[in-house]
Automatic annotation (TrEMBL):
InterPro entries: MdtP/NodT-like (IPR010131), OMP_efflux (IPR003423). This is RND transporter. It is found in: Cell membrane. It is a lipid-anchor. GO terms for cellular component: plasma membrane. PANTHER family: OUTER MEMBRANE CATION EFFLUX PROTEIN, OUTER MEMBRANE PROTEIN-RELATED. Signal peptide: none annotated. Keywords: Coiled coil, Lipoprotein, Membrane, Palmitate, Transmembrane, Transmembrane beta strand. Belongs to the outer membrane factor (OMF) (TC 1.B.17) family. Residues 432-459 form a coiled coil.
Length: 478
């Protein structure tokens, strides 16, 4: 017995020593050659890596209320929060990997033995019954030594998954914020398009009345009246289209905010909209810490690195201890008669996979390739992030130039429309020149609204591309 205990001691000591071994590779961020500056960037670069809160970026109380509602009620956000809770539970569970498992089993059975068998004849002779009872209660422990650092790698994978989901949640919230802002501004742009259409209907109606008077005086043909009526219908067609697009946009924004379709209260015009100015773009390398989607992609590489180590550890031997203690008796009244009914067992096991048809090696090779794929996706996410900032900067720059040109064009067309009307009244211009001037002014006004909206969307895109800012952190961080 002393010799047996000696072997067990040696086994346990060896297990503890081997527990310091690890076959997994520690994660290190791959080298990514980042550019020094963003393309199209003409702002002063700073080292400020703080994210701009959406409450500072958005300064419209009506829009602020919509964003708050969306962050609280949006279905996708709430599903992501539940996913986080699942991953948090998995992470907490992984931290218990070094603890043993314990099982308690209690059983009682009665067996009627064959009288012609040895056990049956002995049972009848010594017990005096044709059956044999067996009462047992056993507490069994099982503990596997973490020889190759498997528990640590499982914990690292669970932690990476949790924090990756946390970053995904931040990215989702930023995306929801951006979608709400863009939808809100789309509604305001539609309001302005409706006003432009209504003004042009009134202007076209005035022109049509003037041409009809001249037609009644036989100064112009019926063609002039028909052309003027067609011009008026062109403006009138914009009115139901604007109402249709408003209804669709309001419905989409209501769903985004987690409610059923309803009307959306909004600011009067695009000129009244205020978004954060002077976004500090910083340098491209800062996107690694700013962008939640980039951070999530890196956490995916961390998790893949841990899975690769686990796949490798599966090819190595595992050591486990399985002690148990309990009671056993053939008589119920002596079931817990201590110490006579006590049963003790201690066992050590070494399991080494020998032939698994190459499955373990294949799984490891697949995990290596999978990690390489995810690492490439991380690199791609960094390149996309830099590109999105550059795209937004280019849009801001060139939409501003377009707005200046459209403003100058608007002044020229306004004068041309007024002059055409005066010249037509004095007989120095024909009706086609009046209609053409009005149509050009209408199209230019519509284009001005479109470019204004593009400039706002570019600022919103830049805000998102730089990482955004959701103000809130997911609860219950491990």
């Amino acid at each position: 017995m002393k010799k047996f205990h000696h072997y067990i001691t040696i086994f346990a000591s060896s297990t503890l020593l081997l527990s310091a071994c690890s076959v997994g590779k520690k994660y290190t961020r791959q080298e990514i050659a980042m550019p020094e500056n963003f393309k199209n960037s003409e702002v002063v670069l700073t080292s400020d890596t703080l994210q701009l809160s959406w409450r500072k970026f958005v300064q419209d109380p009506l829009l602020t209320s919509l964003i708050e509602k969306a962050l609280s009620n949006n279905t996708d956000v709430n599903v992501a929060l539940l996913n986080m809770q699942q991953l948090e539970l998995a992470y907490k569970q992984s931290k218990k990997g070094l603890l043993p498992t314990a099982d308690l089993s209690i059983g009682a059975n009665r067996t009627w033995l064959s009288s012609n068998s040895l056990n049956g004849s002995l049972s009848d002779q010594f017990i005096g019954t044709p059956y044999m009872d067996d009462y047992s209660a056993t507490l069994r422990l099982s503990w596997e030594a973490d020889i190759w650092g498997k528990v640590k790698m499982q914990k690292e994978e669970s932690m990476a998954n949790f924090f990756g989901q946390k970053e995904n949640l931040s990215a989702l919230k930023t995306r929801v914020i951006v979608q709400v802002i863009q939808s809100y501004y789309n509604l305001i742009a539609l309001d302005e398009q409706l006003k432009i259409a209504q003004r042009n209907v009134q202007l076209s109606d005035s022109t049509l009345n003037m041409i009809r008077l001249q037609y009644n005086s036989s100064l112009v043909s019926s063609l002039a009246v028909e052309q003027a009526e067609a011009q008026k219908k062109t403006a009138e067609l914009l009115i139901p289209l604007a109402h249709q697009n408003m209804a669709v946009e309001e419905n989409a924004l209501s769903i985004l905010c987690g409610g059923f379709p309803q009307g959306i209260q909004r600011t009067a015009s695009l000129d009244d909209t205020i978004v954060g100015d002077g976004l500090a773009t910083g340098v491209p390398a800062e996107l690694l810490s700013r962008r939640p989607d980039v951070r999530a992609a890196e956490y995916a590489v961390v998790a893949a690195t841990s899975r690769m180590g686990l796949a490798k550890a599966a090819m190595y031997p595992s050591l486990s201890l399985t002690p148990s203690i309990g009671t056993n008796s053939i008589q119920f009244n002596k079931w817990f008669d201590l110490p006579g009914s006590i049963v003790k067992t201690i066992a050590g096991n070494i399991a080494q996979p020998i032939f698994q048809k190459g499955a373990l090696k294949t799984n490891y090779e697949i995990s290596v390739i999978e990690r390489e794929k995810i690492a490439l996706q991380f690199k791609q996410s960094v390149m996309v992030a830099v590109s999105e900032v550059s795209d937004a900067l280019a849009k801001i720059k060139h939409t501003e130039q377009r707005l200046q040109l459209i403003h100058a064009k608007s002044n020229a067309l306004a004068k041309a429309t007024a002059d055409a009307a005066l010249l037509y009244k004095s007989g120095m211009a024909n009706y086609l020149e009046v209609i053409t001037a009005q149509n050009n002014a209408l199209q230019n006004d519509l284009e001005r609204i479109t470019v204004k909206r593009e400039k706002l969307n570019a600022a919103i895109d830049l805000y998102r591309a730089l990482g955004g800012g959701t103000d809130t952190l997911p609860p219950n961080t491990p």
